[in-house]
Amino acid sequence: MLENFTLPYWDSRIKMDAVDKLIRFDLGRRLQDDKNSLENVHKTFWSNQQADGWYAATNHKLELVYIPNYSRFVDEVADKIRSRGIKNLVEFGTGNGLWLEYLSTRFSGLVSCIGIDLSESQIRANTKMLPGIEFIRDDIDKWIQSNLMGDTIYHTNSGVLEYLSEDSVERMFSTIKSRARNSFMFLIEPVSLDCDPKKLMRSWVGGEELSYSHNYKNILERLNFRIEICEDLVVDNHKTVVILAGT
User: Fold this and answer.
1) Which helix (H) or strand (E) is 55 found in, with range?
2) Range with the lowest mean pLDDT among 54-68, 106-120, 145-159, 220-234?
3) Which of 25, 122, 151, 218 has the largest CB neighbor count within 10 A?
4) Helical residues (DSSP H) of 62-188, grouped into ranges
5) Whole-angstrom distance, CA of residue 28 vs CA of residue 46
6) CB within 8 Å of 20: residues ≥ 6 apart
7) Cα of 210 vs its chain's centroid, Å
8) What are phi and psi of 167, to 5 degrees?
9) What is the distance between the alpha carbons of residues 91 and 89, in angstroms, rounded to a whole number?
10) How does pLDDT run across 100-123, given as a tens digit for each residue?
11) How many alpha carbons lie under 13 Å from residue 245 in its C-beta half-sphere?
């Protein structure tokens, strides 16, 4: 059953008929009742991704999607942090590392750039291809418990926190708020097209991956983050929330 739920939907070679889609939908709805189970299914899927899977299928996104749509936000973030002593950049769910490499050229004064991902295969490939960046295979929640730094931008791009439950996202934000002095959350995260993230009282599960749509602004404000950028836009047929929030 789990194989039906975690089929790589971007692979056109895999054909899903109506029955298979209904199986995936029903399984996802059942998993939704158990936050840990749904989150673990997503984590298992991404942990098992090989470098020639999703990441290879989306290599084009840097030039065709990310830079054209998000470079203005990157420039705005760079302006806001220029005089604030930011030394480190950490990207959770770094994928092929190309977006992280791009960011490293846009933010001045960085001492370290770190990419975290669940895929051991992709981390090995990144380390060979981008030796100037430190890549680590780890779970976000586990990594932040022992490795948080101040003076840091913590970043996600285009689908990372959507695979974590609201409780996990809030725990992550709370830990960063309390332990990462002079730091920022810079989030570029999708939400479902048929929901308004600003009106969500609780996180909602939907979409073809049955992932979470979170009200990031609400969660961050609840934890007393300082919101400096908050904008919604539609990118690549996905509704996207861009937020910069300071600790």
Assistant:
1) helix 54-57
2) 54-68
3) 122
4) 67-81, 98-106, 120-129, 140-147, 166-179
5) 16
6) 4, 7
7) 15
8) -60, -40
9) 7
10) 999 999 999 999 999 999 999 999
11) 27
